[in-house]
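thoughts on my protein:
***
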Amino acid sequence: MTQDLEAILTAADAAARSFADTEPHARAKALVAVADALEANADELVGIAMDETGLGEPRLRGELTRTAVQLRLFADTVVAGAYLDVRIDAADPGFVLGVRPDVRRYLVPLGPVVNFAASNFPFAFSVAGGDTASALAAGCPVILKGHSGHPELSRRTAEVVADALAGAGMPAGTFQLVTGQEAGVAVLKDARVKAGSFTGSIPAGRMLADIAAARPAPIPFFGELGSVNPVFATQAAIDERGAVIAAGYVTSVSGSAGQLCTKPGFLFLPYGHGLDEAIASAAAEVAPHRMLNPRIAAGYRQRREVILGTQGVRVIHAGDIEIHGDGQGSATPTIVAVSLETLLDERDTLLEEAFGPLSILVEHGADAALAELVPQLFEGNLTATVHAGGDEAGGALEALVRVLTEHAGRVLFDGWPTGVAVTPAMQHGGPWPATTNDSSTSVGTAAITRFLRPVAYQGAPEALLPAPLKTANPWGVPQSFSPAGESVHWGSKA
């Protein structure tokens, strides 16, 4: 595929201002048009995805539907306008600190964004996925770096997206595709690009984040990288529903061959938990699942061998990884167990993420101070999960939840971290190395704020104000208004 990067960058730059100024309903209709087009082409796109990724049809159709729903959610977000965070301070000659001018602040689009697509979610985190949807919703043109694991799907989906946006009247250059690592890096380095987003490995994400930071004018870079997503189950929870916990654990570990950023990598259980048989039985029922591509299959096989070869590892269900003649691999779940002492002794070997259907039970004594151990074992994670008894609260459990909140972006109770709901309140992010920016999310309506920056207008004539800041409020967006005279009452509500 020949690609003229200069033409692509020029087109994105030329589209930036007019796309940013698009009236909310027009931009929202464009997002809905993309959602409609994806669903209209679902049969073709899902077929291509099945061939290139090895993922099953039900999973892929569900993922495409999720992608369309996400686009529609952002369409409503754009129309509602609260994401603009409009604040208006009226001119106040009696302001307590001296005369206050009229000041009006809101959030504006950053400009062109380069999005590096993910391999493991060919729809939801790839061409038209969350990063693309939120950037477009913010009013930023997107240059999408397609993933080499599904090149034909990337190309065809990009055509669908670009055609839908053009048909909805969006400027030329609003959405474009580039392919190849060198092209992606070149785009990230270009001064016309104002932000980057990425879903993938820690080494690749760190490399791209460093490039973004090292530019003459550094730009924000939002990378979702690695996460092992620890789970903690108390004895009371096991006594109440041990079989349910065992089955849910195996399902969460083995889904999509464990190639999910939220897969539970560690399950902490008290000694004598008695779940070995139930876990092994559930794992034995899981059929082989093809991994996404030969590189991932080879990496998983190597990581699995390292873990199985570590002293102190006890096998609960061995599972398998079979590499075929074309390099593709098919895997069944591998579940092993270690003592807490072994995990501490072998942390350099065992704590690294295993991207595939492998997870480690960590067995500990009833007196283990898990809240104190978490900072020793884990950096940042996307999720952390607690399974507790129905009447458990306070004490050690409360301390554990508090420390997990400091180490994860989403804390779950009595559930499993795989399956990220597309809802306004969702948080899909976390401290390093889960992401490169722990104050952001890549799922939920708050994801739009990654691609915006604040601007204030002081003493501006009404005619020169942008639509969201005008007193007449032609876009009908929420405006937070601070009237004159208010400052003399500050502190009275304390």
